[in-house]
Amino acid sequence: MLVTFRLLFRRGFCACCGFGWNGQAARLLHGGQGRKRSEEELLKAQLSYAIEAEMTVTAADFLRLRTGWTYFQVKKAEAKAETVIRLMGDALGWSEAERERERAEVRQLLETIYRLPENEESLAQA
């Protein structure tokens, strides 16, 4: 097992958290000699990986596809949306107008999710 972890580590993959390595994410997740990371630091690492390795360019993309929060933890997605927009905006150099467009897109995504039918019966009635 240790050999597997070492091999994955050398190949640029973090076996403990599933993130591929990039410089900032690696430093944020593993550079603190056991220091407990804040939620914002961990979110920043996730965003850094998503932007650099997965070419994520919108907050809605991150919330929907990169975390899965809108599928399984929609309240968490809603709670983290503004922080995601702020951190992505800082990382990608968004203007205030671009940040507002991102807010509107995330709002639209969440409204769509909340309007989904709860079951097949309510789908048939719609």
Structure description:
With 126 residues, the protein is an all-alpha fold. The protein has a domain at 56-119. The protein is built from 8 helices and no strands. The chain is globular, with a radius of gyration of 17 Å.
Kindly report how far apart the N and C termini lie: 53 Å
Helicity level: over 70%
Number of helical elements: 8
Low-confidence stretches: 1-17
Mean residue pLDDT: 80
Strands, total number: 0
Q: Spell the H/E element sequence.
A: HHHHHHHH
Strand fraction band?
under 5%
* Shape call: globular
Largest sheet: none
Supply Rg.
17 Å
> Which structural class do you get from the secondary structure elements?
mainly alpha
Task: Reconstruct the topology from this structure.
Elements: H1 2-10, H2 23-30, H3 39-54, H4 59-66, H5 69-72, H6 74-92, H7 96-114, H8 120-125
Sum this structure up briefly:
The chain has 126 residues and is an all-alpha fold. The chain has helices at residues 2-10, 23-30, 39-54, 59-66, 69-72, 74-92, 96-114, 120-125.
Q: What are the main properties of this structure?
A:
single chain; 126 residues; mainly alpha
